[in-house]
Amino acid sequence: MTKKRIGVLISGRGSNLQALIDAAEDPDYPAKIVLVISNVAGAQGLARADAAGIPTLTISHKDYSSRESFDTAITEALEDAGAELLCNAGFMRLHSESFVRHWWNRHLNIHPSLLPDFKGLDTHARVLEAGEKITGCTVHFVRPEMDTGPIVAQAEVPVLPGDTPETLATRVLEAEHRLYPHALRLVASGAVHVEGEAVVGTAL
Ligand code: GAR
Predict the structure, then answer these.
(1) 156-174 pLDDT per residue, tens
(2) N or C: which end of the chain has fewer CB within 10 A?
């Protein structure tokens, strides 16, 4: 089996990155992480990649005068590493349209809500304020508009009485750690692909 070569973009803790690292340890997993890039120096996720022997880079947006030049540096590093697919895992910068076009249908993001509901930041606090009884997480292909794009997979998570944004985030995060490796497996194996603006194919 030829494994797809994956680049991962992070900004912080990297627990979703860890879930992907753990999944990729399975010899039958169809993807291999070849580079982790953080826009934040010292991000915890960089240490996770180091511990797994995965090359890392810090590319700080603060060192670039425009979003485009920052994005170009990221693409160059990914292509030097031979990355074929890109996974955002808690990467907290918006991409330029040209970057999104470059990685079109080769670029996944995970978001902690059932998209298209609750795009953006402070998701769990807004879910609680709205009185939702079910929330969850979504893995989708990246499009120029934030937190939109063809959906690969979603998982539902109950909102429980007494939840705070923190308790809800913890419950959703556990679901994220199952969902992201599953979704990446679907895409990397070729079991699913984008047709029109929908993800079609066979579930594994
Ligand atoms: C995750 O909950 C992820 O869904 C969210 O940030 C967290 C990162 O955690 N991403 C977004 O909100 C992107 N819009 P992690 O660094 O431990 O994976």
Answers:
(1) 999 999 999 999 999 999 9
(2) N
